Amino acid sequence: MRELGRAVQLLTARYATGQLLTARYATGQAALDWRRCLRTLPLEEALRAALADSDPGPQITLAVVVVAAEHHRIATAALDSLLAEAVRRARKADTSWDLLGQAVGMTRQGAAQLSGRLRQRTT
Questions:
Q1: How are the residues of the chain apportioned to helix, strand and coil, as percentages rounded to the nearest 5?
Q2: What pTM does this model have?
Q3: Tell me: the pLDDT tens digits for 10-32?
Q4: Alpha-carbon torsion 24, 26, 31, 33, what sign?
Q5: What are the extents of the domains in the chain?
Q6: How far apart are CA 109 and CA 89, in angstroms?
Q7: Angle, CA 64 vertex, CA 62 and CA 68 arms, to 5°
Q8: Cα separation values, 103 from 6, 53, 96, Å
């Protein structure tokens, strides 16, 4: 139940952040869409606009941190899942931990430990 509450908070914060950035940075058709339909800018576009702003102010800078952190979390989870599956398939094809370790720049023990951590994160 606590996780559901946290998810609702994150979605609310993300939506409010999108609204804040759109209200400030939308131009042209995007500004019309915002005023007429409350359609927010794609978050990456809003993030880039905010980062290009020479004087964004504290509220915008915090909004940028929220958006960047969320994008980082999503990207990290996706890459972890991809790497975990690649390692699983390599091991299924009898690739040694030594070779996997070399491929990722660590020892075989490090590669095995990394694989375990990735499996925990992606399940």
A1: 85, 0, 15
A2: 0.64
A3: 556 666 888 999 999 999 999 99
A4: negative
A5: 2-122
A6: 18
A7: 120
A8: 37, 41, 11
